Amino acid sequence: MSRLVVALTTMLLVLTGCADSSPPTVVAGRAVSMLYDPGRVGGLPAANGPSGPRGDVPPVTARLGNSDGGQIDRLALLAIDDIEDFWTHHYGQSLRGRFTPVSTLVSYDSTDPNSPAVCGGDVYHLPNAMYCRRADTMAWDRAKFMPTARKYFGDMAINGTLAHEYGHALQAMAHIVNPFTRTLVREQQADCFAGVYLQWVAAGKSSRAQLSTGGGLNHVLAGLIVIRDPVSTPDNPVSVSDEHGTALDRVGAFQTGFDGGAEMCAQIDTGEIRKRRGNLPRSLFDSENPQSDLTIDEGVLSTLTEQLGQIFGLSRPPKLATSGKCPSGHEPDPVAYCPETDTIVVDMPGLQDMSAPTDQSTMGMPQGDNTGLSAVTSRYALAVQSERGVGLESATAALRTACLTGVAQRRMAEPMTLSSGPGLTLAGGDLDEAVTGLLMNGIVASDVDDHTVPAGFTRILAFRSGLHGDIDGCFERFP
Question: May I ask which residue range the UniProt record assigns to the signal sequence (predicted)?
């Protein structure tokens, strides 16, 4: 982020041990509709629990070509069997034509220069998973890509990845894409189809896999955001495209399938994506001309709080402290709001760590300065609620906080002039950084005691409602 523009970042953070992170604390509360119900997601109870295979993973069958017989291939084939079982029984309910399993499955080693060609292309140094329509072939890298996805996002990241790839096969079967269909639309549809299948798993209907609607689903969503597959074309069988959509786009498409079913996926087109983005500035979806992120310091936070004062117009703006803790003993992790003194307390080293982009070559969530700045904004949002005299200790307060943070982020997407100079302006990639926090730590959607709701879907939905709404709307939606 520069003084004028929050930097676009596509940097990736290795979330060491994220699959083993502690589940979020759940607090009681209510929302005004089932869509925003903190206790449910996609019609299912929102809860933490086991995610992954049910029982022992069977051996690899002869159906998989070029396999080494290892655990990754066994998990991948188990996922394929499960995905095909689902679509065999549900395809005809929503899609045209007839479901036919993918004819060829191939495993390869991206670290081996002697790996056989896949879909007519060289896969050496191509860690990924893919579906090639012309050859009706699905392939995955068992050496680097799948093990890394599994390490950081759990066993169900394999199911999520292959469910997305199977979505491309479904597009071909149902004839809902053509050679002129934009990659963005293809990818959003595939994300959506993955959501349809994984809702079935989360509902406990799969005999092979299980998925919790809390941490398990959050990690699948995290993997979905960072796992981008190559696009197979006649001229370049395995070319890589970056037009996969923002994190907000991808979670929205996945949720469309999870909540609405396959018929909704088939309806995704450029117009539907544009409608989901609403009136947000195009600059928030611009992935060109990346810049360096700001290092968060007292000057940046001072500018942010002045800007938030202009956005929210409080009669008594909260104070900012960059050390210490609340009189109650509540310590910032890395931020906290102290209602007894109307103060936002920041652990500066912790916030800087949360906001630092890392090596782009690693697999992980998009993180940058707005991961930290959105967290600070959420604590300011608690001060807004305090001035209005509403409760700060409930699931409703947590979602209201996310909504108000979204309102502020929308305002920050356009240049603002402050008494001290130019404000901070969000640009492409910054919403992805906020979504990272919403999924992986939930601070932006937490109450004054740092309690969040278990489903990342619901956190992001509340945040999105603020992006497309206003301050009063947040208080009406989350009373």
Answer: 1-19
Last residue of a domain, one of 277, 306, 337: 277
The two three-digit tokens of residue 321, written as one number:
């402290």
Q: What distance in Å separates the CA atoms of residue 458 and residue 456, rounded to the nearest whole number?
A: 5
The token pair at 116 is 């056989």
Quickly count helices (H) and strands (E) in the chain.
15, 15
CA distance 477 to 184: 31
Contact 191, 250 (CB under 8 A): yes
Residue 16 is given by DSSP the state T
Give me 236's structure tokens. Answer: 């370049």
Residue 76 has pLDDT above 50, yes or no: yes
Q: Which residue has the tokens 């081996």?
A: 112
233 pLDDT exceeds 50?
no
Identify which of 247, 287, 436 has the alpha carbon closest to the alpha carbon of residue 354. 436
Q: In what order do the strands lie in the sheet with 104-108?
A: 64-65, 104-108, 137-141, 129-132
Q: pLDDT for 201-231, tens place per residue? A: 999 999 999 999 999 999 999 988 887 544 4
Domain count, the chain: 2
Q: What is the pTM of this model?
A: 0.88
347 in the same domain as 226: no
CB atoms within 10 A of CB 272: 17
Interatomic CA distance for residues 135 and 65, integer angstroms: 14
Closest CA to 103 of 173, 159, 158: 173
What are the residues facing 345 on neighbouring strands? Answer: 321, 336
β partners of residue 346 = 335
Question: Contact 370/406 with Cβ under 8 angstroms?
Answer: no
For residues 27 and 393, the answer to whether their CB atoms sit within 8 Å is: yes
Same domain membership, residue 222 and residue 119: yes
Distance CA 28, CA 361 (A): 40
Residue 226, class by beta-carbon neighbours within 10 Å (0-12 exposed, 13-18 middle, 19+ buried)?
buried
Residue 50 DSSP symbol: -
Residue 156's contacts (CB-CB under 8 Å, 6 or more residues apart) are: 51, 52, 198, 201, 209, 211, 216, 219, 220
Residue 24 banded pLDDT, cuts 50, 70, 90: very low
60 is written with which tokens?
């690899």
Place of tokens 């007839």: 98
At 17, list the tokens. 């041990």
Q: Which domain holds residue 398?
A: 298-477
How many angstroms separate the CA atoms of 101 and 286, rounded?
A: 37
DSSP string, 399-444: HHHHHHHHHHHHHTTS--EETTEE-----TTHHHHHHHHHHHT-GG
